[in-house]
Design a protein that fits this description.
Helix content: over 70%
Order of helices and strands: HHH
Number of strands: 0
Radius of gyration: 21 Å
Distance between the termini: 62 Å
Number of domains: 1
Largest sheet: none
Low-confidence stretches: none
Oligomer: single chain
């Protein structure tokens, strides 16, 4: 697999490799992909757990949460 990057991103990656001690750009990319995969899996686990408790999590659900949060705020005198 080959990945093309614009110069500014290539410079960023090169700096990260030097500053973080990665052996190569491939090692750096593998680490980023692993983190992304882990974050995606974690999000899936969270959604599976919450969906069973809260029901459907759509725009209306989040709007109701925001409304509840606004109602719990302390009013300033």
């Amino acid at each position: 697999m080959n990945i093309s990057l614009p110069d500014d991103l290539k410079s960023f990656v090169d700096n990260r490799i030097r500053s973080e001690g990665y052996g190569s750009s491939s090692e750096y990319m593998r680490e980023l992909i692993r983190r992304d995969r882990d974050r995606s899996q974690f999000r899936q686990y969270l959604m599976e757990g919450v969906t069973g408790l809260a029901g459907r999590m759509d725009a209306a659900y989040f709007a109701s949460l925001r409304k509840k949060l606004k109602g719990t705020g302390k009013k300033k005198a």
